[in-house]
């Protein structure tokens, strides 16, 4: 319990929630809850890539700017971004102006369209990597599943998405419940996971 963050409501949360005021609502309402919406999955994948080498606080505080800049991460539209869009984004002070990450986002949008054609949905692909055996919460930064996911994405041409980024993505999107054992939100996330139907290629047919 000594490593917990005690929130203003008096209940314990994961320790990292104490790092910034904006972390608490994100932690309580998003982090670790299962997601099967392709656009949200793509957004998180891109934001995790932009976070590489930076803090999540920077990305979280710029998230609305990223959404505006990348058309709410509609990968069908982002896939058609041109060099003019790259130049526009490089001038946008509201996001991270890193050419490599911007170009990777456009590339990954193109790869996402291919994945929907091949797998039925992004969700069908990513959820196949949900681990069945879980380690003690928040004791690792990669896993066999995140390593396998990153390797397969690299094989398919995705960029800026290594095993550590993949694991952070899995934590955030609820592929595993990595809330601390004493965190009051852990049980809430577990209930959400129990009620969640894992997407498959069959129940997410391509359009």
UniProtKB/TrEMBL annotation:
Binding site for Zn(2+): 14, 27, 179, 183
GO biological process, one term: base-excision repair
GO MF annotations, alphabetized: DNA-3-methyladenine glycosylase activity; metal ion binding
Keyword entries, A-Z: Metal-binding, Zinc
Organism of this sequence: Halovibrio variabilis
UniProt entry tagged with the keyword Zinc: yes
This protein's name: DNA-3-methyladenine glycosylase I
InterPro entries documented for this protein: Adenine_glyco, DNA-3mA_glycosylase, DNA_glycosylase
């Amino acid at each position: 319990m000594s490593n917990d963050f005690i929130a203003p409501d008096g209940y314990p949360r994961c320790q990292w929630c104490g790092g910034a005021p904006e972390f608490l609502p994100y932690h309580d309402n998003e982090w670790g809850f299962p997601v099967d919406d392709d656009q949200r999955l793509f957004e998180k994948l891109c934001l995790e890539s932009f976070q590489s080498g930076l803090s999540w606080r920077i990305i979280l505080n710029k998230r609305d700017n990223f959404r505006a800049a990348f058309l709410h991460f509609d990968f069908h539209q982002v896939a058609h971004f041109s060099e003019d869009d790259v130049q526009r984004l490089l001038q946008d002070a509201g996001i991270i102006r890193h050419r490599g990450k911007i170009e990777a986002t456009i590339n990954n949008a193109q790869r996402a369209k291919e994945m929907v054609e091949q797998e039925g949905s992004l969700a069908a692909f990513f959820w196949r990597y949900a681990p069945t055996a879980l380690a003690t919460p928040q004791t690792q930064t990669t896993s066999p599943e995140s390593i396998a996911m990153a390797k397969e994405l690299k094989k398919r041409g995705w960029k800026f998405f290594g095993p550590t980024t993949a694991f952070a993505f899995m934590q955030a999107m609820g592929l595993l419940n990595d809330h601390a054992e004493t965190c009051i939100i852990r049980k809430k996330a577990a209930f959400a996971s129990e009620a969640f139907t894992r997407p498959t290629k069959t129940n997410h047919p391509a359009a």
